[in-house]
Amino acid sequence: MQKVLKVRDLTLRDGQQSLFATRMKQENIDKLLPLYQEAKFYIMEVWGGAVPDSVMRYLGESPWDRLRACSKAMKGISLLSALSRGRNLFGYVPYPDSVLEGFYKEAIKNGLNIMRIFDALNDIDNIKSSIRLINELGGIADAAVCYTVDPKGAEEKIFTDEYFVNKAKEMEAIGAKMISLKDMAGLVNPARIYSLMPKLKEALGVPVDFHTHCTPGYGLASVLTAIIQGVDIVDTNIWWFGGGSAAPAIELIWIFCQKLGIQLDVNMEAVAKIRKELANAREALGEFDLNRHHWPYDFDKWYATMPKDIDAQFDRAIEAAKACDEETLLDACHRIEAYFGFPRPNELVKNAEVPGGMYTNMVANLRALDAEDVLEEAMALIPKVRRDAGLVPLVTPTSQIVGSQAVNLALDRRKGLADYTSKNKQFENLVKGEYGKTPVPVDPKFREQITGDAQEKPYDVNSYKKPENPELPECNGKKLAENEEEYLLLELLPQVATTFLKNKRQAECGIKKEAPAAAGAEAEVEVADFDPDFTEIAPMGGKILEITVKEGDTVNPGDVVLVYEAMKMENDLQAEKGGKVAKILIGEGDVMATGQPIIEYEAQRGPTLVAPMGGKVLEISVKPGDTVKNGDVVLVYEAMKMENDLQSDMEGVVKNILIKEGDVMSTDQPIIEFEG
Q1: Residue 191 and residue 325: Cα distance in Å, rounded?
Q2: Are 322 and 256 contacting, i.e. CB atoms less than 8 angstroms apart?
């Protein structure tokens, strides 16, 4: 009987490591779903992971609506799965069982079939409740073993085949109906799969799924090896959303299966239709595309004309995989990927041993913070931070925590400060023990350095505080969250959900700006002398429709200071300088000229503390008149989804606070002026 290989499609959740997938609007996904009906994937992973956060944060859409739409369209043809971080769900902190139960109940009610549950530390205690609840609520509990490697040069080997097999057996014993080997960093090389996969298959009585990424260059070769070694299910992406930092493209896996005599349980004609639609989607998402100038070639065109020497590489790869000839296998797969135009292996990621998603998100976040120049230093420091924190596997949320802390460490070193002078709160909690048992115990001396206490302190579920659900006066007293599913979003992602739900309620109440009058042409205006360091100027001419700041306000670079009409378009004018507004030099209805001064800021002449990196200000802990010493925490800010303490590298008496809570500061922005 011909062997059948099942496929879990990741395109709509993890396409190009979440960047594409989480920026696709629901209207774009709706166009794809009828084609997915035809494709008949065994599983479609459409939810969880970064999706709930991102669709609210970037698209202003409800994650519940996305799940319902997928469920309604698929009609049970494919099983729908989501990715859950166990005790952390889709957020970044541990939650009590009551929150887990509420969320899983709503997810299954809205069409979810499979919850793939993992813990970033492979701490079984952190997934027990999730496995039990999913099974009790009628879902399928898919438990994931997070793959990672020992640090280079480590004398003691922790992450052996036996380590992963034993974790998988423990998961099956507590109720897992499937086991996923989750290689989020793409670090599992073919030789390791050749050894590990048969052991997993022999030890387990449930199906085994293999999830990996291509970023370091192992993905395609390791999936081929897993197929030959008997894996039941493989995770793939569709062409334009595959390869690079994502899972391998299903089209390449299909070619291998044809040659192996294995039936790929997917309608590839329907996949071809999806592929055409995804090309348009990727084009529209160019600003999030780290490889926007180097797409893979069109599969249909290039497969049809594939030369004999490339076809031979597929045969060469198969024979090498069967013989565990890793060098030859990798060479053949890299030649195949190069022919079709997929990105080359990322040596920076490979050497730092990090997930592709961690890398792409670090790039995106640092770009947004105008701090891209620190990337290489931060990546080089990740192995150190990981070892210090107990050798944690790097998968959300630990990848985000470790990555953010590595950025802090790089910035500390640039300023000549001691390591870990700047710490994010989640890193402190990780070292403290709140996220669970780390694979290797944290050095008590290091724990004391970071947390002030050498004693490990696990998360206390009794300390959990339910978020407030305030009434909105502008919406006639409507509650921010109007039902259980909306309140669950507040529990998981309070800051993002608050903004999303407030915008939703206000839209329901009809709160919107009045339509501005038509604008005239740009006027000839005499430009007076001005101090360029403390003056905002107009980047182009147009009619002022609305001024959004007033004298005395503190403006940050990037803040919208006015709305103007130019070339028949309404435009936001964002501040480039920023500061405390001393004088507004133009009025609503005026016509400004290109280069005209529009806002004058107060000159800051005293010693000034600047932001080491960008982020949202959560709390300011000093006020004018306070005496600040070197090392004192002056504010708490969010950067790269982590809370960080900003410690002063100056001493003096505070004269002016140049920023307020809720503001988004940029790198090197003046934030506190001291008396001279």
Answers
A1: 8
A2: no
Same domain, 199 and 221: yes
CATH code at position 93: 3.20.20.70
Residue 65: per-residue pLDDT: 95
Same domain for 341 and 355, yes or no, is: no
155 belongs to a structural domain:
no
- Report, as ranges of residue numbers, the positions in the chain whose pLDDT lies below 70: 1, 16-21, 92, 290-291, 356-357, 360-361, 364-365, 368-370, 512-533, 539-542, 558, 564-572, 594, 604-605
pLDDT for residue 234: 98
Residue 364: which residues within 8 A CB-CB, separation 6 or more? Answer: 19, 288
Which residues contact residue 440 at a Cβ distance below 8 angstroms, ignoring those fewer than 6 apart? Answer: 158, 390, 391
What are the φ/ψ torsions at residue 470 (nearest 5 degrees)?
Answer: -75, 160
In a shared domain, residues 496 and 556: no
The phi and psi torsions of 490 (rounded to 5 degrees) equal -65, -40
pLDDT in the model for residue 541: 63
Q: Give yes or no for a contact between 64 and 46, defined as CB atoms under 8 angstroms apart.
A: no
Q: What is the pLDDT of residue 522?
A: 34
Q: What total number of domains does the chain contain?
A: 5
* Interval 58-95: pLDDT, tens: 889 999 999 999 999 999 999 999 999 898 888 767 88
From the list 127, 103, 122, the residue with the least C-alpha distance to 52 is: 103
Count Cβ atoms within 10 A of the Cβ of residue 126 and give its class: 0-12 exposed, 13-18 middle, 19 or more buried: buried
pTM: 0.74
Q: Are 338 and 356 part of one and the same domain?
A: no
Q: Do both 497 and 558 map to the same domain?
A: no
Query: What torsion, rounded to 10 degrees, do the Cα atoms 439, 441, 445, 450 define?
Result: 40
Residues 562 and 446 in one domain: no
Q: Are the CB atoms for 392 and 427 separated by under 8 Å?
A: no
Strands 535-537 and 140-146: unpaired
Alpha helices in 389-481 (DSSP H): 398-414, 425-432, 444-451
- Tally the C-alpha atoms within 13 A of residue 663's C-alpha that lie toward its C-beta: 24
| Residues 619 and 658 both lie in one domain | yes
Residue 372 located in a structural domain: yes
Confidence at residue 369, expressed as pLDDT on a 0 to 100 scale: 57
> Which residues span the domain enclosing 591?
532-601
C-beta of residue 56 within 8 angstroms of C-beta of residue 26: no
Claim to verify: residue 8 and residue 58 sit in the same structural domain: yes
φ, ψ of residue 618 in degrees (nearest 5)? -95, -40
Q: What's the angle, vertex CA 84, arms to CA 79 and CA 85, rounded to 5?
A: 160
- Partner residues linked to 657 by β-bridges: 672
Per-residue model confidence (pLDDT) at position 23: 82
What gap in Å lies between CA 189 and CA 211, rounded to an integer?
13
Question: For residues 597 and 599, what is the distance between their CA atoms, to the nearest angstrom?
Answer: 6
d(CA 296, CA 289): 13
